[in-house]
Design a protein that fits this description.
binds zinc ion, about 35% helix, alpha+beta, two-stranded antiparallel ribbon, 5-stranded mixed beta barrel
Length: about 260
């Protein structure tokens, strides 16, 4: 590849166009989202080209220099190169649903790329998604994939990147240390956990499935150390997902991949 702008990122979404074209929405390395039009991207044709624009694939795309007044805002791919694809995820229904969930959540979250801009404040978003997919693939290859545990790691890192990770150490109401009590409820509209006294004062029910011990462990566990995480009950992720949905204004049943998992 030579000359012209280059976009590099994870394919979040593929929308077929005409007979064999597509528009791919990429999560770029800087954490922003960019659409690119790919002629013949669906593959096939007389040369029976393989389709490389699949959700979750890491692509490098060289952009055609735009002719003045032609083509509107959408970048058009001149050449593309597949940098990484999971060998495993497509063969496991739960893993594939997780991949779709990560990408769907990314689509709801990522801000639009502006050519020439060099913002770095969203770069963590790309790191979270690419790490999550890489280690998901690795766990499947090792045949030790626990979907709920991987989701907890992803959600913890994702909430941290968004700046809304609940503080697992102190009460969101009074600031007191939460100690060892695992039943402290996660209060989405307050953005944190409530101690027993504040939970009682606000008539909050104690958490049936303790979220905090799993969250605390996930905060201290790097993606590459996923083997050190305990098995996480799926209800923990439901509460973390509800927390994310509350803060991002997303109704969870609107996410197709959420309905596949829960
Ligand atoms: Zn309190």
């Amino acid at each position: 590849m030579s000359g012209g702008a280059v976009l590099e990122g994870v394919v979040m979404q593929v929308v077929p166009q005409k007979e064999r074209d597509l528009i791919a929405k990429l999560l770029l390395r800087d954490g922003t989202a960019a659409g690119v039009y790919v002629y013949g991207g669906m593959g096939g044709g007389t040369q029976n080209k393989p389709r490389v624009f699949e959700p979750g694939n890491m692509m490098r795309v060289q952009i055609r220099p735009s002719r003045a007044g032609v083509g509107g805002d959408l970048a058009v791919a001149a050449e593309n190169l597949l940098l990484w694809r999971s060998a495993q995820i497509r063969h496991d229904a739960r893993a594939f649903a997780l991949l779709c969930l990560y990408l769907e959540m990314s689509l709801k979250t990522a801000v639009t790329h502006h050519p020439g801009g060099n913002a770095t404040e969203h770069a963590g978003h790309f790191g979270v998604v690419s790490n999550a997919l890489f280690h998901l693939d690795q766990a499947l290859a090792e045949k030790s994939f626990a979907w709920s545990t991987h989701l907890t790691l992803f959600l913890t890192k994702f909430l941290h990147h968004l700046g809304i990770l609940p503080d697992e150490a102190s009460c969101v109401f009074c600031g007191e240390a939460l100690g060892e009590d695992p039943s402290t409820p996660l209060v989405a509209d307050q953005g944190g956990f409530a101690c027993a006294a504040c939970a009682a004062a606000a008539s909050l029910p104690a958490s049936l499935r303790p979220v905090r011990p799993f969250l605390a462990q996930a905060v201290r566990t790097r993606f590459q150390d996923w083997r050190a995480m305990p098995e996480v009950p799926p209800e923990v992720n439901v509460q973390l997902m509800q927390f994310w949905g509350h803060h991002l204004n997303v109704r969870l049943p609107d996410l197709a991949s959420y309905r596949l998992l829960f």
